[in-house]
Amino acid sequence: MAWSLAIQYWEIYILVNEKSRTVASLWDGENLKCTFRRCVDNRLMNLWLEVVQLASTTVFSNDEDALIWRFNSNGVYFSRSLYKIVNFRGIVPVHVPVVWHLKIPPRIHFFLWLLSKNKLLTKDN
Q1: What is the pLDDT along the chain (125 residues), one digit of tens a residue?
Q2: Which residues lie across from 16 on neighbouring strands?
Q3: Using CB atoms within 10 A as the burial measure, which of 1, 38, 57, 87 is most buried?
Q4: CA nearest 95: which of 72, 119, 120, 112?
Q5: Do 77 and 69 contact (CB within 8 A), yes or no?
Q6: What is the rounded CA–CA span in Å between residue 9 and residue 47?
Q7: What is the rounded radius of gyration, in angstroms, for the C-alpha atoms of the chain?
């Protein structure tokens, strides 16, 4: 079983005899071909059915795994993207140029510009 499944479904993983095999090698298209060291109760059987459900919705391939940075549109890590996540908690500041065309006092324009750049003098900044 995959390492992450071993952590998430530890109670099932410790009972499986085929610990060194992958889920892909145990999956026959309909069932996971595993044997257990002992019988399981209803709660563990429900956990097992969750694992089988996960396996049935997964597409297995022989391609090599690749790391994908999900916080960047092209999947490649850049320190700039990490900086945005750390500083803005995943929220992308939006500045709408239309604000400059509003009929409001210049100090409000400036305030909105500072707000869009996250440069307001607030306690958290």
Answers
A1: 445 778 888 898 889 998 888 888 888 888 888 888 888 899 999 999 998 898 888 888 887 777 788 888 888 888 888 887 777 665 555 556 777 778 889 898 888 888 877 788 877 65
A2: 36
A3: 1
A4: 112
A5: yes
A6: 7
A7: 25
Residue 96 phi, psi dihedral angles, 5° rounding: -100, 120
Helix (H, G, I), strand (E, B) or coil at 16: strand
pTM (predicted TM-score): 0.48
Residue 44: other Cβ atoms inside 10 A = 16
69 contact partners, CB below 8 Å, separation of at least 6: 75, 76, 77, 78, 81
| C-alpha triplet 47, 62, 16: angle, nearest 5° | 30
Tell me which long-range contacts 90-97 makes (C-beta under 8 A, separation of at least 24): 93/117, 93/118
Residues 26, 32, 36: CA angle, nearest 5 degrees: 95
23 touches 5 (CB < 8 A): yes
